[in-house]
Amino acid sequence: xxxxxxxxxxxxxxxxxxxxxxxxxxxxxxxxxxxxxxxxxxxxxxxxxxxxxxxxxxxxxxxxxxxxxxxxxxxxxxxxxxxxxxxxxxxxxxxxxxxxxxxxxxxxxxxxxxxxxxxxxxxxxxxxxxxxxxxxxxxxxxxxxxxxxxxxxxxxxxx
Amino acid sequence: xxxxxxxxxxxxxxxxxxxxxxxxxxxxxxxxxxxxxxxxxxxxxxxxxxxxxxxxxxxxxxxxxxxxxxxxxxxxxxxxxxxxxxxxxxxxxxxxxxxxxxxxxxxxxxxxxxxxxxxxxxxxxxxxxxxxxxxxxxxxxxxxxxxxxxxxxxxxxxx
Lengths: 159, 159
Hints:
Chain A is α+β, with helices and mostly antiparallel strands.
């Protein structure tokens, strides 16, 4: 681990009863952040916050599928979805579904903004099918998990 | 084709800006309707309204995936999703996604009610991620396509 990784706080808001919006700055150029988020071997290094992640599918194009399986002491958890829109370096729209709650699909819109000073701002808007789905995700500890993943991404970007 | 198939009109309503609700009566016992909707070789006979349908996956259980491919003169269209809930003879909750609009997922809740007189009432509630998704589906001729599929199902049930 590289202890010099600069870590910015995330800002989480709820623009509507079915949405969660997260902003997070990373201390790296946009191209580097994009690579870390889209190359399977790099995704595997931070997505699971230290847990082993097997990237089973990652067909990064409109209509392509993705599936990641996380292996931890708490068990094995599969996550999957499909890409709706992919604009290199700028934007990915995809669905997200945890095997443990099949059918409870989340539509995620991720954008990367080049801040022009070597830093990159990520904005991720998650649209849930229902308000109950969103509240369930929040109750399940989504914010802490996300913070841990982004901290792991900071480390990867600083390496 | 069996011309004696009894065909009931469907009733389509919009309970909210993101929903479409359809009621349709079938002139067959619930067990027969359930079989026609869940046995791949029977689904292939009515789902495509006369077009060839290849049932690539139909893992009818919570968490299982389905994928149907329809072949018509207008081309090849894939549809897929995942089962969220399966209660034999009574209820199926599943997602629905057309390859042509990846990420625009619909959550469908289908229930079958035994009317006690040899007929069965189907109620299908489709919940779209956005009102625009729902309006797009309506504009694309969803109601006519559905009516044709249910008419084909009438024929199958009468055979």
